[in-house]
Amino acid sequence: MVFASDSRTNAGVDHVSSYRKTHLFAAEGERVIALLCSGNLSVTQSTISLLDQHARDSDSHKTVMNVRSMYEVAELVGAALREVRQRDGTYLQQSNVDGSASFIIGGQIRGEQQRLFNLYTEGNFIEATRDTRYFQIGESKYGKPVIDRVVNASTGLLETTKCVLVSFDSTMRSNISVGMPIDLLIYNRNSLRVGFQRHIEESDEYFTMIHNQWGEGLRRVFAQLPNPDWDVSSSN
Fold first, then answer.
1. What pLDDT does 233 receive?
2. Which long-range contacts (CB under 8 A, 24 or more apart) does 156-162 make?
3. I need a surface site. Which of 90, 171, 172, 196 has the fewest CB within 10 A?
4. d(CA 35, CA 21)
5. Could you tell me which residues come within 8 angstroms of residue 135 by beta carbon, excluding any fewer than 6 positions away?
């Protein structure tokens, strides 16, 4: 599994903020759970803090660190998100602040296969299937076409990682609300430990190469496409 998130939470002429949007709950040999978030920063941070607080509380009945399935993890994240939005939602609305938030929840717990969920702001969720193998949240319309054209059931981890970075580059080219650094995590099935991690800054050599060669390649392919064989000289 490949997880990636940017770090930009607010963008404007004179104000740019960066916070990590990937959070891990892991116990080697037992579980690796990645939570990627998008939306209102206070809501997502409060949700993560609530989950973390419960995980540290020995009196808690069910936590992300002791439930036996990823489905139950998704249920816990949904319940925590609803609790935070119920607590803060009225006050956010009074100030016309959008309190929506969403999560990607993925990983593996010992005894079951790795699983991936997309959790909506209402706290409900859907699971990835053979036909829907990946999820994107937040600003996705610019980068999604790249993944749709490249990734399939036989795509390897490194090739998928390359495609994910191209997708981010395409998104950042068109939308200022998405920006570096990028947090990348690669999880190997059945390893039950946190795998390869990389915090990709603007100076990263591989990402710079991706950015340059992808742009040059698109311009080259576009130039090679034949113009339409249409007579437009008499068009109104």
1. 81
2. 157/2, 157/186, 157/188, 160/2, 161/2, 161/4, 161/186, 162/210
3. 90
4. 8
5. 104, 116, 117, 118, 128
- The burial class, CB within 10 Å (0-12 / 13-18 / 19+), for 185 is buried
pLDDT tens digit sequence for 196-208: 999 999 999 999 9
In the numeric block, which tokens belong to residue 188? 């190997």
Per DSSP, the residues of 124-146 read -EEE--SS------SS-TTTHHH
32 token code pair: 């690796």
Please tell me the distance from the alpha carbon of residue 122 to that of residue 84, in angstroms, as a whole number.
11
Residues sharing a CB contact under 8 Å with residue 208, sequence separation 6 or more, in sequence order:
none
Cβ(106)–Cβ(25) below 8 Å = no
* pLDDT tens-place string over residues 13-67: 455 567 889 999 999 999 999 999 999 999 999 999 999 999 998 777 899 999 9
Stated pTM of the model = 0.91
95 DSSP 8-state letter: T
The position carrying tokens 């490249």 is: 150
